Each structure stands twice: as C-alpha cells, then as structure tokens.
Amino acid sequence: VLERALGAALAAGRTPTDEAQAIEWLGLVPRLVPGDARNIKVTTAADLALVTALLEVRKAHAAE
Questions:
Q1: 6/14 Cα distance (integer angstroms)
Q2: How many CB atoms are located within 10 Å of the residue 58 CB?
Q3: Cα separation, 9 vs 14, whole angstroms
C-alpha cells in the first residue's frame, strides 16, 4: 500500500508531508500502531545529538 501511495503521489506531482498523508490521498485510512520512545527518527542535527548521547550511555552501562 505504501509503495502504491507514494508512487501515486509522485506521478501526480504531489509531495506528502508523511507516509500517512500519501495513504490518505488514496482514500485509505492509515493504521497507527504503538511505538517505542527509544525508536527515535533522526531528521535534525539535534536528533542526531540525542541519539549519540543515548548510545554513549547505553555503551557505558554495557561495559559495567
């Protein structure tokens, strides 16, 4: 469904704000599922800094 939705958006010259919007443009309802707060989407330099810090903490605890 996602490939079809993104392909249709591209073919129509549209740029969705996210995958859910592309699916909605097909007339479908995206399914939302619970996630994990540790699954961080890295889109900015601040996100990358946060992930780097979290990995350093995890690495330090693993060495103990």
A1: 9
A2: 11
A3: 5
